[in-house]
TrEMBL record:
The lineage of its organism: Bacteria, Bacillati, Actinomycetota, Actinomycetes, Micrococcales. This is MarR family transcriptional regulator. InterPro entries: HTH_MarR-typ (IPR000835), MarR/SlyA-like (IPR039422), WH-like_DNA-bd_sf (IPR036388), WH_DNA-bd_sf (IPR036390). It comes from Microbacterium betulae. GO terms for biological process: response to stress. It comes from the Bacteria. One of its GO terms (molecular function) is DNA-binding transcription factor activity.
Amino acid sequence: MTAHPDSTEIDISPVVEQDPLDLRISVAAIIHWADSREVRLQVMRKVDFPVDDVAMFVVVNQLAYRGALRPTDLASTLGTGKANVSKIVQRSEDVGLVVRVPSRSDERSVLVALTPAGRAIGERIMDAAEEQYRATVAGWDDQEIETLRRYFSRFAREAMAEMASRSPAIGHDI
């Protein structure tokens, strides 16, 4: 058994100072909110997602935002392995949300794409996201919203470009 220091010697505070204007804290909070199981379940109920399977919901959500993806890219996007994404895609195919189609640019590859039923759910997901965003900024004036839009867009493009410069496999989405 490992000896533990006296609990009075352990610093239990966050590593980063809790400054509400710290970009790291703001970005982490937004990601945590958007990536939370609670938010996903809420959206799944709102859009009448046909099965109680968060992983399948995330696949439809990502394909709604990005369009058809190679299974490898989908696995990378979801932060899981190819074997796991294959199982999720199979379950999604079984209920008619996605289909595997030949890639137009590489005859050896397949893409995972939304079916018409999956696309309809994807549209409802986008509508729910838009509704949530509008509710969040309801008290903001048009200029504040436009400034946020421009800065978020710029931040996302530059973050993805920076990441792609370190990992060329990521760059296809920018």
